[in-house]
Specification:
Radius of gyration: 23 Å
Largest sheet: 3 strands, antiparallel
Distance between the termini: 97 Å
CATH architecture of the largest domain: 2-Layer Sandwich
Number of strands: 8
Order of helices and strands: EEEHEEEEEHH
Strand content: 25-35%
Number of helices: 3
Length: 172
């Protein structure tokens, strides 16, 4: 199936969407990606994504901003307009909260905002909860983000080696 714009066309349930079209202008040729609904994007990438890992009868995903690493529409970090991601900080202390902004969806360079939180555990989780709630991010991701941040903070704590107690030898 072709389109008058001579682009690649995908047909999904009687919906024809132009994925990439080439437009010519006085400044040259550039590729423009037409916005699709998140459900249609999910139908396209759910079984054929470079981030998929199929193991032990389960399907996992390694995409950015996927809080549970599950291949599901709910936790997908690519198709939704507002997503939250939690990563360990580069210096090994604290977490980095990656927020996908709603504005500027067509500008990938400015699409994500990174906030580094380097506080104690309780204050970090409180700040993360506050960021998600006050900026109207998805409520269903709040608990998953808190759990991931908690696991990252727990892994950054130093491991204390316990000494074995030796019993004193009995003297007779």
């Amino acid at each position: 199936m072709t389109h008058p714009l001579k682009g690649n066309v995908v047909a999904a349930d009687a919906v024809v969407v132009i994925i990439k079209s080439k437009f010519s202008s006085t400044f040259g040729t550039f590729n423009a990606c037409v916005n699709m609904s998140s459900h249609l994007q999910w139908m396209v990438i759910r079984n054929c994504s470079s981030f998929l890992i199929k193991r032990n009868g389960q399907t996992y995903s390694t995409e950015p901003n996927n809080l549970k690493s599950k291949n599901s529409f709910r936790f997908n970090g690519l198709v939704h307009r507002k997503t939250v991601g939690v990563e360990p900080a580069a210096d090994g202390k604290g977490v980095v909260v990656v927020l996908k902004k709603r504005a500027g969806q067509r500008k990938p360079a400015t699409l994500y905002e990174k906030i580094t939180i380097n506080k104690n555990s309780r204050a970090t989780l409180s700040s993360l909860r506050h960021i998600i709630r006050k900026n109207n991010y998805r409520k269903d991701l709040r608990m998953a983000a808190l759990r991931r941040a908690s696991a990252i903070l727990k892994s950054q704590k130093p491991v204390v080696v316990k000494k074995k107690r030796s019993r004193a030898a009995k003297t007779a």
